[in-house]
Specification:
The complex is a heterodimer of chains A (587) and B (295). Chain A has 587 residues and is an alpha/beta fold. Chain A has 20 helices and 23 strands. In chain A, α4 packs antiparallel against α7. Chain B has 295 residues and is α/β, with parallel strands linked by helices. The chains are: A alpha/beta (587), B alpha/beta (295). β17 of chain A pairs parallel with β2 of chain B.
């Protein structure tokens, strides 16, 4: 078995062992070598102890899902070997410190190479014992024949702030392990990694980072949030920006305050963001209604994790779709976007602010743990600042306010439903806003006719918004035998599943929904009806998109495929699941 | 010396729905007076309220007003202040709104010291929902939700504010509107978070804590040899209630930075000022540099 630039490396260990940081650094060395990288982390909600792993999929073409197969396992704990035994591919290998007592029989039975190496001794001899992870990574590079220079460059960058001694020690340790592994096992290991010097320079970035950059470029200058996995890194990334970018970050006392501060900042005229996961979004629900009723633009990034309640804090799920679409008492317009790729996260970062100001309503961007936290290589052009547009909708500039006639009505019964918005601070636009029903001036009013007109004005915004919502996007050949219907991060594995089916002589495509509310019902129905067989693939129990399609487009999908164990779909699971996915939607 | 404005510019035409004799009238009048005395115009101030009788106050004024949801005016106001520090932000809400449902935000505001003035219309009862006991109801208060007398200790906003780090803590009485207006003006002038807890009778649902009840107990700290910068003295006075209730500035410490003062991103302009510039010049070259950390 021999293969070049097509493999997965898995680093398994205990929480606190540096699995994630080692993995991310290793992934970067492959990105620098021109390989396409998809790096996913699997960890528990704790600081110390318990098995964690980091998986790096490497290829000469972009990858959008973890493969489920492991070709090289770096076991930092004995437990890692047993836990991942079943996923190790034919001809694969396990690298582990030789002091571990590992039962090698089941590995050898399956033709898996067992590479016991004196990793601790190497670390101690060439640096110090805390560098055992580095030794394991060096050994992995050695057996795959990956040139050492790329690793050395990342070690130099990553350890620079710890001083020259740390840099030199880690380089020495990595290189010693590299040479030993290469000499001992390199010839017998069939999976090889080679740099692609012709490849363009690529970024290694995750969905949260891409969203944060997009938001910044879109003019976001205020972020209030309460830390909640897996959304926190959006706020953390923006918090590292130097003051020149002018982004005010407020870590609040809770998610209620987070949403309310963002509403206050937005009411005052800033582009304001709050980020959270499902549990925090629950606390924001009443505030969402405030933004809806007082027509304040608000962007909420809801990065989903396994629910309900505390659920699976560090794992992935898509179970908040119907909640987010319906959250809040009463009826008010909102927009819900669900990027499916890291590129789309960047775009949603700025587009959400345009939509929020254009329709003066809350915009929720639904992401999830898998999309938000997995690193993928992106061509630098994919983060295209030139594509960013800032459209403030009917937000009045100071000059426009200056020209206003007397008697400005903030909540004027505009035909489009969107009334010109003056931010407070100008003598010509002094007005009241109220969460109570109000009249055109903003003052509280419970009269019948006013209520009817004001409800109609607000709800009309949805009709306009629906016209610009994107229809589902088709990936793959038209008229395929089976269409995988999906939204959000499931697009990645669906796309690879369709590719695999088509490459194997079958026929499949993917219909990806990214603008979920208001759902563009007409084009959705048209596209869905043109499909031969539809299967909704979702990371939830109740097939929420399928329900939404039945509710809005009147379309019943042919089958559903669900997963709710907190781990992202692999393409192979989808391919296999299609066989049995004929079951009707659960009622 | 600023030229004082006519408080009538803050008048509005809306029908006021408060009961005759309600202490909220005094707060409304005093706030208009204080703003006029400080020559703050209608567009330069924002009054943020929550939900409850007293939180309807912005509806009865001509000023920027934001009537938010129950318990949440402080975070909304903090967001405004961080986006546009130039705005004079005043929060007006009741005891239930501020010390009950919004209690966490109240404590956080005390320790953060944003330049916000909060006026709490403290009538020791839930009025708009028709007479349930509130966080400041005295233990034993008989109300619709405590028919046998409440069994909780009353919340002490003065002591909590002091313990929480508030830099200006005052107490006023709705029966003395001029004094109330002076305290509101002093609170607005104070750089930092200012709490003005207003004792104000609910003439419909609180038949115990009436104007007479208060008049028999209140006294003025200004009339005594009292040093408002003495934290220990403030702590002692904060606990006076049964026999004597102090009015005036209980505690004041000046010269401390506000929350906004310490936000680095606000040093060269606010999010609001930047946004209007940004729409014209997105400065892509400044963003391009951000990609470097991902290589």
């Amino acid at each position: 078995m021999s293969r070049v630039n097509d493999m997965s490396i898995l680093i398994g260990g205990d929480a606190g062992q540096g699995v994630e940081s080692s993995g991310a650094g290793f992934a970067l060395s492959f990105a620098r070598a021109g390989l396409h990288v998809l790096a996913t982390q699997d960890y528990r909600s704790r600081i110390r102890g318990g098995h964690n792993f980091y998986q790096i999929r490497l290829s000469e073409r972009p990858r959008y899902a973890a493969s489920g197969l492991v070709h090289l396992l770096l076991a930092l704990t004995p437990e890692s070997v047993a836990l991942h035994l079943d996923s190790i591919a034919e001809g694969g290998a396990v690298i582990f410190p030789d002091k571990f007592e590992i039962d090698e029989a089941p590995l050898k039975e399956r033709g898996i190479r067992v590479d016991a190496l004196p990793l601790l001794r190497i670390a101690e001899e060439h640096g110090n014992r805390i560098m055992a992870n580095t030794a394991a990574l060096g050994a992995a590079a050695g057996v795959t024949g990956f040139p050492f220079d790329y690793m050395a460059s990342v070690i130099k960058d990553n350890f620079a702030r710890k001083g020259q001694e740390a840099v030199d020690g880690n380089v020495r340790v990595a290189e010693a392990a590299y040479q030993m592994a290469r000499q001992r096992y390199g010839d017998d290991f069939g999976y090889k990694l080679q740099p692609l010097p012709e490849a363009p320079k690529r970024m290694l970035i995750n969905g949260n980072e891409a969203f944060a950059i997009g938001a910044l470029a879109g003019g976001c200058r205020f972020v209030s949030a309460y830390p909640m996995t897996p959304a926190t890194s959006i706020m953390e990334w923006l918090a590292t920006l130097p003051p020149v970018y002018g982004v005010v970050i407020k870590h609040t006392e809770d998610e209620i305050a987070a949403a309310c501060m963002a509403i206050g900042a937005s009411y005052a005229g800033a582009r304001a963001l709050t980020v959270t996961s499902g549990g925090g979004f629950c606390l924001m629900v009443e505030s969402l209604g405030l933004a809806g009723m007082t027509e304040v633009p608000l962007v909420v990034a809801e990065v989903q994790r396994g629910g309900p309640s505390t659920g699976l804090p560090t794992r992935t799920e898509q179970s908040d779709l119907l909640f987010v679409i319906n959250a809040g008492q009463g009826e008010f317009p909102r927009i819900v976007l669900a990027p499916g790729t890291i590129e789309e996260c960047f775009e949603a970062g700025w587009r959400s602010f345009n939509l929020a100001e254009k329709y003066q309503c809350p915009v929720v961007v639904l992401s999830d743990q898998f999309l938000s936290s997995s690193l993928r290589t992106l061509d630098t052009a994919a983060i295209d600042f030139g594509s960013v547009r800032i459209d403030r909708g009917p937000t009045l500039t100071y000059e426009e306010i200056e020209r206003l006639p007397d008697g400005y009505n903030r909540f004027q019964f505009a035909e489009s439903g969107v009334s010109p918005r003056a931010v407070p601070g100008h003598p010509k636009a002094v007005y009241a806003s109220s969460s109570d029903e109000h009249d055109e001036t903003g003052h509280i009013n419970e009269e019948i006719e006013n209520r009817r007109l004001m409800m109609q004005k607000r709800m009309r915004k949805l009709e306009r918004a629906e016209e610009e919502m994107r229809p589902p996007a088709l990936y793959g050949p038209e008229g395929a035998e089976v269409t995988l219907v999906c939204w959000g991060s499931t697009f990645g594995p669906c796309r690879e599943a369709a590719d695999a089916i088509n490459e194997g002589g079958g026929s499949a495509n993917v219909l990806q929904f990214s603008d979920l509310w208001p759902l563009p019902a007409e084009p959705a129905e048209r596209e869905l009806k043109a499909c031969r067989r539809t299967v909704a693939v979702e990371q939830n129990y109740t097939s929420q998109l399928a329900k939404l399609l039945r509710m809005t487009a009147g379309f019943q999908v042919g089958g559903t495929l669900t997963k709710y164990d907190g781990r992202p779909f692999t393409p192979a699971e989808i391919v296999a699941g299609l066989e049995t996915a004929a079951a009707p939607v659960r009622r | 010396m600023v030229t004082r404005l006519d408080p009538k510019i803050f008048d509005a035409t809306a029908d006021v729905t408060w009961c005759a004799g309600c202490g909220d009238f005094a707060v409304l009048k005093a706030l208009k007076l204080a703003l006029a005395d400080l020559a703050i115009e209608q567009h330069q101030a924002l009054v943020v309220s929550g939900i409850g009788c007293g939180s309807k106050l912005p509806d009865y004024m001509t000023v920027n007003g934001y009537m938010t949801i129950h318990g949440r005016p402080l975070p909304v106001a903090t967001g405004v202040k961080l986006a546009n520090p130039q705005m004079h932000v005043v929060v007006v809400n009741g005891d239930g709104d501020s010390y009950g449902i919004g209690g966490n935000h109240f404590v956080q505001a005390c320790r953060r010291n944003p330049d916000i003035t909060q006026i709490v219309e403290n009538n020791q009862i839930y009025g708009l929902t028709k007479g349930q006991y509130s966080p400041t109801s005295d233990k034993g208060s008989i109300t619709t939700t405590s028919p046998d007398g409440s069994i909780e200790l009353a919340f002490n906003p003065m002591a909590v504010a002091l313990a929480g780090g508030a830099t200006f803590i005052a107490r006023a009485f709705a029966g003395e509107p001029k004094h109330l207006a002076q305290l509101i003006a002093a609170g607005i002038q104070h750089r930092g978070y200012a709490l003005i807890d207003v004792l104000q009778p609910c003439v419909t649902f609180n038949r115990v804590n009436t104007y007479d009840w208060y008049r028999k107990r209140v006294y003025h700290l200004e009339d005594e040899d009292y040093d408002a910068s003495d934290r220990d003295a403030a702590w002692a006075r904060a606990h006076e209630w049964e026999e004597r209730i102090p009015l005036g500035v209980l505690y004041r410490v000046g010269g401390l930075p506000t929350y906004e003062d310490q936000v680095r991103a606000l040093q060269d302009g606010s999010p609001v000022s930047r946004l209007f510039d940004l729409a014209k010049s997105p400065r892509p070259q400044q963003y391009e540099r951000l990609k470097e950390e991902f290589f």
